[in-house]
Amino acid sequence: MDKSEFKKILKKVEKPARYLGNEINSIHKDTSKEGLIRYAQCFPDIYEVGMSHLGSQILYRVINSDEDIYCERVYSPAVDMEEILREKNIPLFAIESKNPITNFDFVTFTLQYELSYTNILNILDLANIEILAKDRKLDDPFVMVGGPCAYNSEPMADFVDIVILGEGEEVNLEVLNEYKEWQKNKTTREDFLLRASKIDGVYIPSFYNVTYKEDNTIEAVVPNREGIPEKPRKRIINDMDKVPYPEKLIVPYIETVHERVVLELFRGCTRGCRFCQAGMIYRPIREKSVKTLKTYADKLIKSTGYDEISLSSLSTSDYSKLSEFTDVLIDEYSDRNVGISLPSLRLDNFSMDIAEKIQQVRKSGLTFAPEAGTQRMRDVINKGVSEEDLKDATRKAFEMGWDSVKLYFMIGLPTETYEDLDGIRNLAYDVIDTYREVHGGKLRKKFSVTVSTSTFVPKPFTPFQWHGQDKQEEVVDKQRYLVKALRNKDIRYNYHDSKTSLMEAVVSRGDRRIGKVIYDAFKAGAKFDGWSEYFNLNIWLEAMAKNNLDVSWYAHREREYDEVFPWDHIDVGVSKKFLIRENNKAREDVVTPDCRHKCNGCGVNTHDIGRGLC
Fold first, then answer.
1. For residue 329, which of 301, 363, 366 has the smallest C-alpha distance?
2. Exposure of 532 by Cβ count < 10 A (0-12 exposed, 13-18 middle, 19+ buried)?
3. Strands (E), 44-119
4. β-strands 37-43, 339-341: how paired?
5. What span, in angstroms and rounded, lies between the C-alpha atoms of 487 and 89?
6. Is pLDDT at 582 greater than 70 in this prediction?
7. Alpha carbons 488 and 491: distance in angstroms, whole number
8. Residue 237: its pLDDT value, please?
9. Cβ neighbours for 358, distance < 8 A, ≥ 6 positions apart
10. Longest dimension (CA), the chain
11. Residue 347 DSSP label
């Protein structure tokens, strides 16, 4: 696409800066270089969302560190841009070079959210790339995916060539180096996939056959070629101080979801919440040193000009050197008006000292996640916090000058009753009472409590993977109940759309048959399904019916322990015996302690994946 045509197009779209590709710290290479491997890093959502994804920023730098590879970005075009591309028959392009990705070597996607899968098909279609993997020819791109949802990539098995399991900094480059060798003779696509399958952390869906029982459950998932691992396993980074991390972040021209330096303190989580997939699949815990973090903080502040540093991890306040590191940051940056934010705080270790340090520059938002309204329910999910923890944490915050707090809960959890919903109401009103106690019985104008509820979605590799989701009418009834229970001018209540949660439950535990549903939904117009203004449940229900599949069978059915799951052939290091044991303890309201203090035998510490790391 020539420059004059591109300029004309930009004048017709709402936000031209989404497609410029020349932001500060973006990377540009000579595309005429002989043998240059072209790698499209696609995020299946709009620019503003994708630009806020830390993993994409990390891999962008890692892959571009190889001079023989050019990693460029692609985002789902907004509806206005897509209309122009289709009208003018312009293939989707990488935003740095503006070259069509149709003939790139690799077209890759991060699987962050199940309802983004139709956007992946839409990107392939816009790029004139065959949607079905079996239809791709020798010179077509290899479609590769990774991310948390890749641990059950079976619904996408018909569309992808390669799945990366686990952390991608090392394995991506190993796949690309293998591609360099294969490219010298460029025999067949299958030959390259065979070579790639030998790399630890690589899964090739087409190399496995799935058989089903008469009751529609899975009988087995087995390799269909010799030399293929029976259980492909995830890859992790052992030493977080040695793993590459960006010294520069791309600074967008327009407002995105997050605009700040992001420092990753550690990977993994030891808390063991039974609904949480990330807490299971990212084990074991591995921390970065204060020295390493300080080095990156200095370089990132200098290269971006941001005035906020976000300390990011699954449970940031569990970082063992958090107090020491916040001291370092405050000493270095407070005079420059650079603030610090902690996006996730636990109620049971909320530190007044750390909060006091953070507010020296500016007060960031204060968010806590009790997850459930009663102690019984919190014990079921192994949250490990109490009502007293919430009262103590909010009292400390209000005494230090905070006037608002956000509380996150989940509804529809296994064994939940309406008493547990009353508990959500009670906790919200307890916060109001605590504020009054701190301020002499008064509520200031700035005071507010925001209560947000999401709907429980059973996820693979969690103790709750055997449970069904509440039926849609049950979810709606619970949301309506809370709307009435939380009717107060000082309480704002937000809840997640029950329709999208339903289809998320179908796809998250889906098998390969769901791939046909995704394809049919896409052909019927489904895209941006994670956005309520675009999601159309009827399209999905019709696609399910067309393929003789039952929504309730996938979303609401309780599973038995002997059922073979679509993802059982993937090895994440955490044993199924441990997950069963945790589910049984949930049924008895028994809490499992934090494994920083006591090993609970999840399996990762005795497995090659995590031996010696925890």
1. 301
2. exposed
3. 69-75, 106-110
4. unpaired
5. 52
6. yes
7. 5
8. 95
9. 326, 339, 340, 341, 342, 364
10. 79
11. G
Cβ neighbors of 132 (< 8 A, separation 6 or more) are 158, 159
Query: Distance between CA atoms of 202 and 77, rounded to whole angstroms?
Result: 29
Q: What own/partner pairs with CB < 8 Å and gap ≥ 24 does 473-476 have? A: 474/412, 475/411, 475/412, 475/501
Q: What 3 state SS string does 149-208 have?
A: HHHHCHHHCCCCCEEECECHHHHHHHHHHHHHHHHCCCCCHHHHHHHHHCCCCEECHHHE
Supply the pLDDT for residue 241.
96
Residue type, 272: G
pLDDT digit string, tens, across residues 326-346: 999 999 998 898 988 887 667
What is the distance between the alpha carbons of residues 363 and 356, in angstroms, rounded to a whole number? 9
N-term to C-term CA, the chain: 52
The Cα 440–Cα 194 span in angstroms is: 71
Tell me if the pTM is above 0.90: yes
220 membership: H or E segment, kind and range: strand 218-223
**d(Cα 208, Cα 225) in Å, to the nearest integer?**
8
Any idea of the CA torsion for 312, 318, 321, 323, to the nearest 10 degrees? 90
Task: Convert the pLDDT of each residue in 523-577 to its tens digit.
Answer: 999 999 999 999 999 999 999 999 999 999 999 999 999 999 999 999 999 999 9
Which are the contacts of 289, defined by CB distance < 8 A and separation ≥ 6?
Answer: 241, 321
- Structural tokens at position 85: 């591309």
Q: What sign for the dihedral angle of Cα 588, 593, 594, 600?
A: negative
Could you give the 3-state DSSP secondary structure of residue 408? strand
Using the predicted structure, report yes or no on whether residue 606 has a pLDDT greater than 80.
no
Q: Are 326 and 357 in contact (CB under 8 A)?
A: yes
Q: Over pLDDT 70: what percentage of the chain?
A: 97
Q: Which stretch of DSSP H or E encloses residue 246?
A: none
- Average model confidence (pLDDT) across the chain: 94
Could you give phi then psi for residue 449, rounded to 5 degrees? -120, 125
Structure confidence at residue 257 as a pLDDT band (50, 70, 90): confident
Give the model's pLDDT for residue 348: 73
Higher pLDDT, 4 or 161: 161
Q: How far is CA 525 from the centre of its chain?
A: 24
Q: Tokens representing 71? A: 């990693």
Paired tokens of 175:
């796949």
pLDDT in tens, 385-404: 899 988 998 998 899 888 99
How far is 157 from 149, CA to CA, in rounded Å? 12
What are the structure tokens assigned to 21, written together?
């590709």
Beta strands 37-43; 69-75: pairing state: parallel
DSSP secondary structure code for residue 590 in this structure = P
Q: Read off the DSSP letter of residue 500.
A: H
Do strands 208-212 and 218-223 pair parallel, antiparallel, or not at all (unpaired)? antiparallel
- The whole-number average pLDDT for the span 369-388 is 95
* Bridging pattern class, strands 142-146 and 69-75: unpaired
Q: Please give the pLDDT value at position 345.
A: 67
